[in-house]
Amino acid sequence: MLIRDFIKLTTRSVIAHRMRSFLTALGIAIGVAAVVLLTSIGDGLHRFVLAEFTQFGTNLIGINPGKATTAGASIGVFGTERPLTIDDAVALEKLRDIEAVVPIVQGNAEVESSHRQRRTTVYGMGGNMPLAFRARMALGRFFIDDDPNSPRAVAVLGSKLRSELYGNTNPLEQRIRIGGDRYRIIGVFEPKGQILGVDLDDAVYIPAARALEMFNRDSLVEVDLLYREGADVDEVVATVTRLLTARHGRDDVTITTQQQMLEVLGSVLGILTFAVAALGSISLLVGSVGIFTIMTIAVNERIAEVGLLRALGGRRRQVLLLFLGEAIVLAALGGLLGLIIGIGGAQLLTLFLPALPVHISWNYLIAAELLAVIIGIIAGIWPAQRAAKLDPIEALRSE
Length: 399
Description:
Elements: H1 3-16, H2 18-53, E1 60-65, H3 86-92, E2 98-112, E3 117-125, H4 129-133, E4 137-140, E5 154-157, H5 159-166, E6 175-178, E7 181-189, E8 194-195, E9 198-199, E10 203-207, H6 208-214, E11 222-227, H7 233-248, E12 253-257, H8 258-301, H9 303-311, H10 316-352, H11 362-388, H12 392-397
Parallel strand pairs: 3-10, 5-7
Antiparallel strand pairs: 1-11, 1-12, 2-3, 2-6, 2-11, 4-7, 5-10, 6-7, 8-9
């Protein structure tokens, strides 16, 4: 049989029963559209979270007090490990390939201007924070670590906190109370947004040593290192470990690189996207049942046609391919319709819900169409085999 005749015979049967073919293809289309929509949301979420997580760059190392146990929990708070101090941070600044060191303390306190007050997050930071975290100043400047252990009472406001306490007025050189102590405002950050649900704009930033006194702590929450671009991260980690082990007497800190965090986060989000795609693929099973049912009906209606084809010299393989071809055409058309619906739905979501991260991936589009064709093959194989096994004489008698 010529390929031209094969295409003509398979498409003619589909066109001859337009409504039935449309409804069958619609079942596949709904499943493909569900896959496209769900994977677009999942992939968009994946990209959004990674973008949020890497807005500070990818050459950062985080150091936390306490050695992580095999269960993944740090025992630094409950164990006998030495605290992570500002002196440790100063020592780390002298290492090769280290460009910036940021000691970090975090807490919550009442913040009061001359007219308004509210409770917000207080970050105790080192003077290299803008360099390490790519933060820009909208007004004023960030504080300088002239003497990290005896800092001045100065503060820098996040953009949201500035607008809530001072509106559009310039807060520079104004006095503000943080946790009951008076501070002089020397700067305001440009909007930085949120990272994993933490609003960096709704916060006030003070020197780390001041924050340790305010919250009555003897250990930093974390020390972040910015290392030179292109440096061997494993070598940097080894150098940091040796220094802190020498200072503390043993290895009692947990060091996490940005690459490790991104790998874990990427794998989790990848599994989430795959799970969402698998959930959407369940709808395709419904479409496969529709194709199986329609092809079974088609075989019963065209028994005499099969008998005539076999009587004219058609082989079983050709009959099998004809009916299987019809199933594939139905599935492929349904898949294309589903792609159109899914892409259109994703565009509408972007239009009406701009805050929802949606990203259409060509890989998932191609995979969805191939999956639709495979489902068409699986659903059509049994009816096609049944048609191919019909006895030509008995088939002609059925007329």
